[in-house]
Amino acid sequence: MAQAPSKSSAPFGVHSEVGQLRKVMVCAPGRAHQRLTPSNCDTLLFDDVMWVDNAKRDHFDFMQKMRDRGVDVVEMHSLLAETVAIPEAKKWILDNQVVPNQVGLGLVDEIKSYLNGLKPRDLAETLIGGLSTEEFPETHGGEMLTLVKDAAGVTEYLLPPLPNTLYTRDTTCWIYGGVTLNSLFWPARHEEPILTTAIYKFHPDFAGKVKVWWGDPTEDHGLATVEGGDVMPIGKGVVLIGMSERTSRQGISQVAAALFKQGAAERVIVAAMPKLRAAMHLDTVFTFADRDCVLLYPDIVYNIHAYSYRPSNKPGGVELRKDEKPFVETVGDALGVKKMRVVETGGNAYMRERTQWDSGANLVCASPGVVFAYDRNTYTNTLLRKQGIEVITIVGAELGRGRGGGHCMTCPIIRDAAD
């Protein structure tokens, strides 16, 4: 089913974490999540298998609630289906995704031939959902396919499933008037930026309208990894980036230099975080609820040290200094907020840890003071409401199994400044 043409006429760009959200990209659960098994879910970065039918229902509810708030919600399977219907786009994706290093020399032409014969929607589903040896027709694969099946059985994938596309935040980041095409940390996610980049490059809603600040998914970035869950364009030319399990100092320094060189930002505040699975991204421990209100997991955030990159005439174009004040004060000062209202994921140590694991700190704003949050974090949601925040709940039982909430599941494409 084709998506309706985009309703958002404003130029692409994200100018805050809290201003009116106008256009957002999400990715519904689907075939990739049906591939999750107890033996592969760790490799695919999920903590458990998912009840996919319920996850689809809950995700649809989330999309509808955003649309009810005036947000133009576009879904990645549909965007990708419309993209691969363009021959040039399909060729670009297959040339970059079906390569000897991924599928083996003896199967490149055969897999391309098979994929070229699929209808656009089926191809989009396969690119995100994966292609197993069991589904691949034996008429295409020859001796190489027999070898693969003998060695690995039917659970071997010729194209890997990409269940983490559910968390569209990470693959690309819209920062003010442009976007970064990110280099992701774990091998299970390395294919995702190819698909998103193809949408921006070829889809009629995006082609020719996207300014890329940094990144190219066809290149190897080595240790320079960046994931969108760590990146927040908070306003006033400031970008907040978590140095985390998945976003490296090498990646942050390159993004900062690229933003400064192109006049896209004036300061990058680096949040130096512990490298923990529980706190994989900055947005798992710290998100905005209003212009002057943040929700945070105190056990980690109060130990974050802030450093700031600013433009410099030195080689590399950046200068780094440690900020004097605690992290939250540093962020407030950068925004010109006299005193930030802080809501902590509440309760005793057990409850705080459970809430943070259940993405309780992972809010996404529809507009100032209006947030989407998982229903299960009742205590923290009550604390937010006591601060005057309108909390719209979504069901998190299945959607959170890869450790992500509303912030993780949304890639804002158009968002107003906070003021």
Summary keywords:
single chain; 419 residues; alpha/beta; five-stranded mixed β-sheet; four-stranded mixed β-sheet; 14 helices; 32% helix; 21% strand; globular
Written description of the protein model:
The chain is an alpha/beta fold and 419 residues long. The protein has helices at residues 31-34, 52-68, 76-84, 87-97, 100-103, 108-116, 120-129, 138-152, 192-202, 249-261, 298-301, 327-335, 349-357, 378-386; strands at residues 13-14, 21-26, 72-75, 131-132, 157-159, 172-175, 178-181, 212-214, 231-235, 238-243, 267-272, 286-290, 293-296, 305-311, 318-322, 341-344, 364-367, 370-374, 390-394, 411-415. The strands form six sheets. A five-stranded mixed β-sheet has the order 9-10-11-14-15. Strands 1-20-2-3 form a four-stranded mixed β-sheet. Strand 12 and strand 13 (293-296) form a beta hairpin. Helix 3 packs across helix 7 (120-129) and helix 3 (76-84) packs across helix 9.
Separation, N- and C-terminal Cα atoms: 37 Å
Which structural category do the helix and sheet elements fall into?
A: alpha/beta
Helix content: 25-40%
Tally of DSSP helical segments: 14
Shape: globular
Radius of gyration: 21 Å
Number of strands: 20
Structure at a glance:
The chain has 419 residues and is α/β, with parallel strands linked by helices. The protein has helices at residues 31-34, 52-68, 76-84, 87-97, 100-103, 108-116, 120-129, 138-152, 192-202, 249-261, 298-301, 327-335, 349-357, 378-386, and strands at residues 13-14, 21-26, 72-75, 131-132, 157-159, 172-175, 178-181, 212-214, 231-235, 238-243, 267-272, 286-290, 293-296, 305-311, 318-322, 341-344, 364-367, 370-374, 390-394, 411-415.
